[in-house]
Amino acid sequence: MEFDLEVSIDRPVAEVFAYVTDVRNVPEWQESADSAEWIEEGRSFRERRSFMGRTAEIELEVTALEADRRFDVRAVRAPVKFEIRHSFDGRDGGTLLRVHGEAKLGGALRFAAGMAKRQAESQFRKDFQRLKAVLEAT
To answer: What is the CATH number of domain 2-136?
Structure first.
């Protein structure tokens, strides 16, 4: 399962990058996130999420970190294995944030892949609108 999304944020790239890459901010803009904390800053972090009536603890590894350009993560301990690539581009004083997500669905989830993809994309869109609102309000 793969998806691509983007959002334009009327804030400088450095501000958007700093906010998105500080995982402690995740619960402020991602609805399913209950908590997020660094295990080893810049290298790995842990999230606690609630989704579809279930709670899961997820451990992620930072696979790419390029200041003001790129932030990629990969789930190393999670119910569903996934990777998310974030790219940050400056546009007229603002930022175009692009995200590419890939998840490997196994077992019973494989049969519900279409529904899972639609739900994940919908949630990401809502989260990005919340991210835009939070950053543009500052």
So the answer is: 3.30.530.20
Helix axis angle for 13-21 and 113-136, nearest 10°, is 120
Q: Which residue ranges of the chain lie beneath pLDDT 50?
A: 111
3-state secondary structure 30-55: CCCEEEEEEEECCCEEEEEEEECCEE
Query: Domain limits of the chain?
Result: 2-136
Strands (DSSP E) found in the chain: 2-9, 33-40, 44-51, 54-66, 70-77, 81-91, 94-104
pLDDT for the residue numbered 24: 96
Instruction: Select from 114, 129, 90 the least CA-distant residue to 3.
Output: 114
